[in-house]
Amino acid sequence: MGTMTSLWDKARRRAARIALPEPQDRRITEAAALTARNRIALPILVGPAGSARTARAGLGHDAEGITWVDPAESRDLARYAQILFERRKHKGLTEAGALQLAHDPLYFAALMLAAGDADGLVAGASTATAEVLRALLWCVGKAETAEVVSSCFMMIVGGAGGRERVLFFADAGVVPDPSAAELAGIAIATAKTRSILVGDEPYVAMLSFSTRGSAEHPCVAKVREATEIAKRLAPELAIDGELQVDAALVPDVAQAKAKSSPVAGHANVLIFPSLDAANIGYKLVERLAGGKAVGPLLQGLRKPACDLSRGCRVEDVVDAIAVTAVQKEVSPESGSPQ
User: Fold this and answer.
1) Whole-angstrom distance, CA of residue 72 vs CA of residue 101
2) Residue 338 — very low, low, confident or very high, per pLDDT cuts 50/70/90?
3) Position 55 pLDDT exceeds 80
4) Which element (helix H / strand E) includes 186?
5) DSSP for 96-136?
6) Phi, psi of 213 (to 5 degrees)
7) Pairing verdict, β 269-271 and 165-170
């Protein structure tokens, strides 16, 4: 069974309600229809009634199984606005300002999540990452156990007759230049994300252009420090660094460069030193090696959410819905990545 087929099955067992606040984007409505038809999750399209009518007409019978919510007509609007006001009044947000924001489909969907009326949120097909994150941080908030809100990509390489290799890349979407402490937090969160979604043991490689002291530079020192912090905070994890990516992934190279490493040669979680490196790395694997990129999956929030690339396809949205749904039963208070 392929990785995504397995995740679709897991998602079906969750029956999660996933809020989708971009119904004006046909990719989102088509993905919602596919999600409902395949019973992967319970899609909730959040947007103006006009968008809903247009989308319904375009989908025809495929619109069955989708819940449609217009913020302006919702009986929950005032209640959601009050949630937002209480969360942001210390920052100067007024009740009128909170009500205005609650009319926005993205904020309304995030408030549904905060109120427990949705189990996850997927957005970003036509909205910048910064806007998606702002709405989630304002409405849902960061988990108390999280060092930083970050993201990861699940990269699926191979398949089609051969064995799939599943790797997690972080952080390729949120934190541009993480500190050592933030990098450690990203590593721990991504390892937990892998455990939830894939169910195997994470082997975490803290990547650098140096392996075990082969080079000296402040960038290398940051990765070493992050590795030590992560080991101290999560001693149960198999984590090592600094490692070059070939030493992390290739057993023969690992034998030559880091023979005693508990991770080198079979890493399945790759923590990059910067967003630059991670973003370039995942796109190279996706475009040149034919890898499938699922995400960015957001980590460190109180509830599950997934950002989308604005170049996403319908199948990418369905996969994002599935992996968000799988995280439904995870509790942020247990230190899990939400």
Assistant:
1) 11
2) very low
3) no
4) helix 180-197
5) HHHHHHHHSHHHHHHHHHHHTS-SEEEE-SSS-HHHHHHHH
6) 85, 15
7) parallel
Position 268 pLDDT exceeds 50:
yes
The DSSP bridge partners found for residue 151 are 298
Tokens of 288: 């040149």
From CA 72, how far away is CA 69, in angstroms rounded? 9
The phi and psi torsions of 118 (rounded to 5 degrees) equal -140, 155
212 band by pLDDT with thresholds 50, 70 and 90: confident
CB-CB contact of 296 with 153 (8 Å)? yes
Contact assessment for residue 153 and residue 319, using Cβ atoms and an 8 Å cutoff = no
Note the pLDDT tens digit of each residue in 139-164.
999 988 888 999 999 999 986 556 88
The label of the residue with tokens 């996850």 reads 120
Tokens representing 174 are 């949120």
* Rg of the chain taking only CA atoms, in angstroms: 20
d(CA 261, CA 251): 11
Reading the block at residue 100, the tokens are: 């205005």
**CA 26 – CA 23 distance, rounded (Å):** 7
Strands 150-157 and 165-170: antiparallel
Integer Cα distance of 114 and 79 in angstroms: 11
Q: Give the length of the chain.
A: 338
Q: Is the pLDDT of residue 31 over 60?
A: yes
Residue showing tokens 């992390």: 248
pLDDT tens sequence across 215-253: 778 888 999 999 999 999 999 999 998 899 999 999 999
Overall pTM > 0.70: yes
Torsion, CA 55, CA 124, CA 31, CA 42, rounded to 10: -90
Q: In the structure encoding, which two tokens stand for residue 219, read together?
A: 């960038």
